[in-house]
Amino acid sequence: MRFEVAELSGAMTVVDVDIQQVVIGGWTGRDAAAVQHHIDELAEIGVPGPSETPLFYRVGRDLLTQGSVIQTVGAGGSGEVEAVVIGTESGMIVVAGSDHTDRDAESYSIPLSKQLCPKPVSAQAWRYEDVIAGWDDIALEADQDRGGATVEYQRGPLAACRRPEDLIQRYTGGTSLPAGTALYCGTIPVIGGIAGGDAFTMRLVDPGHGRTLQHSYKIDVLPVIT
Question: pLDDT at position 107, please?
Fold first, then answer.
């Protein structure tokens, strides 16, 4: 997979990555009480809680995509904006990603619900070392297109999620990701409740350097045949 890394100098550097594993960080909220409250809410509607927090769900590496259209079976899915850290041969990079998830399947298997949908990421990236100092101030933003209108879906800072250093250490036992590993670092609550849409746009907004990573994709819903 090819990424264009926006350097602080203004230059663009092309980085090719042979993706070997895709890891979805789950239950990564920094506020432990809020995480537990969400676990309790899901338990009330039959969604099994995690064995520990955070958790790291593995999904097929071929699910990672920079495409502008994804296909899902049925309309029961929705996106989640996340910061994604990727290990490369020249150091770690950060991209904007969406953990698109099948919400119907989520009621009985969270790992399966994540495996059922492609995982879009932006083609443009930042150097991890350039943004880690101001990480908590970076904003997560997502919009949805529904019936011809664009609505705000998610807004909030990365400060709401566990620090990437913490997640990387918990997953690898070290301070960096191996080349070819993509780690989704968690998301924030939605505005007005979880819902699907016709298209999804996700952004990482870095106020410290005045720049944005963005990617949009449409959802092509395939029929459910019984």
Answer: 83
Q: Which domains, ranges and CATH numbers included, belong to the chain?
A: 2-222 (3.90.850.10)
CB-based contact 96:81 (threshold 8 Å): yes
Query: Concatenated DSSP letters for 132-193?
Result: STTGGGPEEEEEEEETTEEEEEEEEEGGGB--HHHHHHHHHSSSSPPTTEEEE----PPSSS
Distance between CA 186 and CA 99 in Å, rounded? 9
pLDDT tens digit sequence for 103-160? 899 888 999 999 999 999 999 999 999 999 999 999 999 999 999 999 999 999 999 9
From the list 226, 205, 225, the residue with the least C-alpha distance to 214 is 205
Cα–Cα separations (whole angstroms), residue 101 to 61, 79, 105, 202, 226: 15, 6, 9, 15, 21
